[in-house]
């Protein structure tokens, strides 16, 4: 396999490159800052400086593009960011697919977000309503629009387009901000952890290597359509904290809970129904407990990137 990876310096993109190279694939990594990929250089890796909006460099005989590059606003609630989101995340993604097709690339994998789903009860399937007005609407609307445009282009050009709607991804190499890194750092040093919203915040947490395996499987099989990429299970913030405490050997009494009302719907996001990916792409995601243990075994739960 010969792959092209955009957004190559990001958390998931870097992991895709490492796993693809370990399988013996050839990878062309496209990044704004090629020096950040210098440590990954090898006989199977070619690095090109590129940003969304630039013409694609010559891709040779590449089989598939895995498109992760995106604009994520610093302020997700700022409506002035909407035009930039659509310029990069929608129009930019479509332009990448069009240019790749002209160069003979036959498959396209788009990394989207499962936060596009409308709130509801029970796990969200790929056919559940998508209506992202509750959080990060401008960013998420641009990602959802990209899905529509890319799938339409793929249908018209006979280029299989796979859209992966990602749950909340965690694991080695993730940024040092967010719920999971905060739990790991605080409990790892035996600090007291206070969880807001009554510990009822709910999210589907998916291990990064599961997402990468699914993406590579999609590229290999050229299976078009939308696929959820989650663990298939909802996990509350309190449950997640207790699992992390067990993994780092911290006492459970270090975890305290504040706020929240049992009468109000729990905040957060729905679990994902991943049966389509299981059936169609041989997907076998880990539970959060299994993923944390895999991360602990691999790096000791210490491998973070600086930054937000």
From TrEMBL:
Keyword annotations of the record: Plasmid
Matching SUPFAM superfamilies: NAD(P)-binding Rossmann-fold domains
UniProt key word Hydrolase: no
Pfam families per the UniProt record, alphabetical: Epimerase
Domain called NAD-dependent epimerase/dehydratase: residue spans: 4-230
PANTHER family from the UniProt entry: BIFUNCTIONAL POLYMYXIN RESISTANCE PROTEIN ARNA
UniProt-recorded name of the protein: NAD-dependent epimerase/dehydratase
Organism: Sinorhizobium medicae (strain WSM419)
